[in-house]
Structure formats: C-alpha cells, structure tokens
Amino acid sequence: MIKIDTALIMIVLLVLGISIVSYLVMYRKENKKCIQAELQQKSTMYILLGAPGAGKGTLSERCIELLSFKHLSTGNLFRHHIDTNTAIGQKVKELIKAGSLVSDDIVVDMVREELAAVVANSAQQSLFLDGFPRTVEQAKILLAMIKEPVFSNLDVKAVHLWLPSIDIVVDRLTSRLVCSNKDCQATYSIKDLNDVEKAAMICKKCGGKLIKRSDDEVDAIRKRLEIYQQAEKEIIEQFALANIPIIRLDASGKAEDIYQNFVQQIGMTK
Ligand code: AMP
Prior knowledge:
By secondary structure, the chain is α/β, with parallel strands linked by helices. The protein has a domain at 42-164 and 217-265: Rossmann fold. The chain contains ten helices and eight strands. It has helices at residues 2-41, 56-67, 74-83, 87-97, 104-121, 136-145, 166-174, 195-200, 218-241, 255-265; strands at residues 43-49, 70-73, 127-130, 154-162, 176-179, 187-189, 210-211, 246-250. Helix 6 packs across helix 9. The longest helix is centred in the N-terminal third of the chain and has 40 residues, at 2-41. The relative contact order is 0.15. Mean pLDDT is 88; it is low at 34-40. It binds adenosine monophosphate. Adenosine monophosphate binds at residues 52, 74-75, 78, 95-96, 99-102, 107, 131-132, 134, 138, 215, 224.
C-alpha cells in the first residue's frame, strides 16, 4: 500500500514538473516574440543639433539616400508653406526672410502634426528631426511631446554637429545654393560647380533651378548664428538631464567623413 502511494506521489510530481517546465519554455518563447515584435515596431528619431550651415542638411541627404532615413526639417516645411502660399506660409514669410525665429505655437503644432504622420507611416524607419528644437523652450516642449502615447514607439537620440569656428559656417552659407524644386531642395556649394554648371544653375538630381536662399545673406546669417549659439548650450543641457543619448560629430571636416563617423557611431555599416 505504502509502495503504491509513493509511486503515485512520484508520478504526480513528475507530471507537475513536466507541466511547469513546458509552461516556462512556452512563456519564454511568447515573451521573446513580444519583445521582438515591439523592437521591430520601434523607429529611432535622431534630433539634429548644429548651427545653420554645420551640415545637417547634407548629412540628412546622405542618410535618406543610403540608409532610407526619413527627414523632417522645419525650415523645409516652412519654405514649402511659403511656396504654396498657405496660411502658415503667409504668417512666416517675412520673419524667415529676415532670419528671425517663427513663434513656438506655429512651429510646435506643425512639428507634432508632421511627426505623428511620419511615425504612423514609417514604423521601423529611422528619421532625422532637423531645425527643431532651436530654443530651450522648444527643447522642453519636445521632451514632453515624445512622452505622448502617439510617440511611444520612438527611440530618441540627439546628434550634435559641432564646429570649432563660426567662420566655417559663414563661408559655407554664403556659397550655398539650393534646388528650388520644393520636392527636392538638394543643397550645393557654388565652389564645387564648374563654369558650365555655374552658368546653367541646374540641379543634378532633378533638373530644378538652383537658387540662393533669401536668408543666406551675411547679415541674416550672423543673426541666425547669434540666436542659435545662445540656445544650443542650454538645449544640450536639457537633453542630458532627460538622459537622451547624444552622438557628437566634428562638423568641420568633409561631408563624407562626417557621414562615416555618424554611421560608425550608430552601428551601421553603409
Ligand atoms: P532652416 O532651414 O532650418 O535654417 O530654417 C529657416 C528658417 O525657418 C529659420 O531661420 C526660422 O525663421 C524658421 N524656423 C525653422 N525652424 C524653426 C524653429 N524650430 N523655430 C522657429 N523658427 C524656425
């Protein structure tokens, strides 16, 4: 009788043990699947920081072309609004021409709307946020915004293109040409064009007309730099306080070197 009881207990314990082990194996598999699914949904947003002319647009162009990044640039969005004569375009036209900042309410609404659209349509894709934040207030607004549920799938990092001297930027910007095609907006330096290209002033990518931006005049450039430099330090402090990882890139070198430094730091190989 005792022998039968012991055998029964052992069988029950064995069945119980097998059940627990199978349950744990299944639970781990399911849990792994959930984590993988969540990771696959995540997009990384890189907030681009750097003075006007530090090379944010050029780095973005390369990453769009070679790494399929998305690009959300407040400057490009405003220029698009101006070209298409929207209500926003009419409000910001003169401010932009003078090199002044557009008010926070207009910028913030526009960024929230555009960012939500990009996130909804491009899961898993990395994107650059370029031109925002430009002030410490905008940095605080952005840090609060990314906590909203609609942006919960965003992994956020900052990329700081730093320059040892502002003379590099003044020189770059006074030589800058931009494609006037609103869907292209590729940038060139007049110094890189030969005489035939200078006479034609045609974009190599889309055939659009190359123009000088109305705010790329020396006075407007210096004004933009003054405004920007005051803010940059405080913005970086806010990001550090919020534990946003910051990737630092020396922006005084060649565009290709800056790009290679970036891909290496984010662990990509192209
Ligand atoms: P960008 O192409 O980034 O140099 O921007 C061109 C112009 O758009 C700036 O000089 C500002 O007038 C306006 N702008 C762009 N982003 C912002 C922003 N975050 N806050 C205020 N104004 C902005």
